[in-house]
Amino acid sequence: MAGGVILVFVVLAVVHLVACATAKESLRRATKPLLMPVLVVFYLVAASPVSPLVVLALGLATVGDALLLGQTSRRFFLGGVAFVLGHGLYVALFLRGVPLRGWAGLVAAVVVLVSLWVYAKVRAGLGGLLPGFIAYFALLTALCVAAYARFAALGWAWFPAMLGAAAFYVSDTLLSLDRYDRPVRHGTFWIMATYCLAQSLIVASFAWA
Q: What pTM value is reported for the model?
């Protein structure tokens, strides 16, 4: 049954990405809020035992997706809050029972350097959102480091999650550049493609590790 749910997610994601690429706005808006609920179903079917925190993280992502369909600053802020809470849950789950070791410091340093580059690109457009930007990218850094730490401690079953955390970072970087620097070519497509990849890889590790 898990394979069937994966197929549904892949088809839905492809339809959504085609809508993004072809500017089919009504189809994009209709499919986006459905993506994470399908991953919830996959996780519930595939995981044993099921962690309520993973389900909650995906629920927060669903809320964030719906809020980010709007164009107002308030909806963007609230959507960001939903993703902050979801990322925080992922970080806590990744770090549960594992030490920070190996190349964790190097991973953090690389992500921080890239974040400084992103900041240099978007700072003129941030206005009063600078504290939120710093906090959010600090959390993304923690997400990448925590995912690496779990991979380093527990092995290849967590490699997809580490890749997923990196894809999350790419997705949110593209979103920041597109909103606060200059439009990214085919930005909506690439933001959502990396986002879908990120969530699916992270959930796969939680389900099958």
A: 0.94
